[in-house]
Design a protein that fits this description.
It is built from six helices and seven strands. It is of the alpha/beta class and 191 residues long. The longest helix is centred in the last third of the chain and has 16 residues. GO terms for molecular function: oxidoreductase activity, acting on the aldehyde or oxo group of donors, iron-sulfur protein as acceptor.
Length: 191
């Protein structure tokens, strides 16, 4: 019997934090006692170019090293990518499409043609309010945790605190924790 992993596909633009969010999720999963992988895929390697990142999380060692073709959840960090059919490729309607946007889930459905579960969050706005930078990766992780519970929120918070406290002030650490909580609390869901 083939092993089943929980698979995440992130879509964003280089410099928006999709790769960092993917790495953070993988590290939080490891800290929670799970197995995980994280890796990016770049097109043109320049700031602002479309890119993808991938996660696999499991209770057993992850042995697959290819891109995620049939994700359990897709996270879109930049809503200008929604017209790309690759965004929903392989995503079953019972799984979530999560989008950083001020648009409603119904508007996202019209743009993408995806008729499954859609969740939206104003991630960039929250990041600007809390962190004072338009990098919504911690917000998006909070939303992903709300929808999947694949990693305990406490593990993610511990990872944010440990990673950021070495580089940033306590005020920045606290701002990222608030952004994480708001991503969890403020998500709009259609399904």
């Amino acid at each position: 019997m083939p092993e089943k992993y929980f698979e995440v596909r992130w879509h964003g633009r280089a410099g928006q934090g999709a790769k960092s969010a993917s790495q953070f999720l993988a590290e939080a999963a490891l800290d929670a006692g799970k197995y995980s992988t994280s890796f990016p895929e770049y097109g043109a390697e320049r700031s602002g170019a479309p890119m993808k990142a991938f996660n696999r999380i499991s209770e057993v060692p992850v042995r697959v090293r290819s891109n995620v073709e049939f994700p359990d959840i897709v996270v879109v960090i930049d809503d200008t990518l929604l017209g790309n059919p690759d965004i929903t490729s392989g995503l079953a309607e019972e799984n979530y499409l999560v989008v950083n946007t001020i648009k409603s889930p119904e508007e996202v459905s019209k743009i993408t043609g995806f008729n499954g579960k859609i969740a939206t969050i104003a991630g960039t706005d929250i990041a600007l309010e809390e962190i004072k930078r338009g990098i919504p990766n911690t917000v998006m992780i909070g939303t992903l945790i709300k929808l999947t519970d694949i990693v305990p929120m406490d593990s993610v918070k511990q990872k944010v605190t440990a990673a950021f406290s070495h580089k940033f002030s306590q005020a920045i650490v606290d701002a990222n924790l608030r952004a994480l909580d708001r991503g969890f609390a403020e998500v709009n869901i259609n399904g």
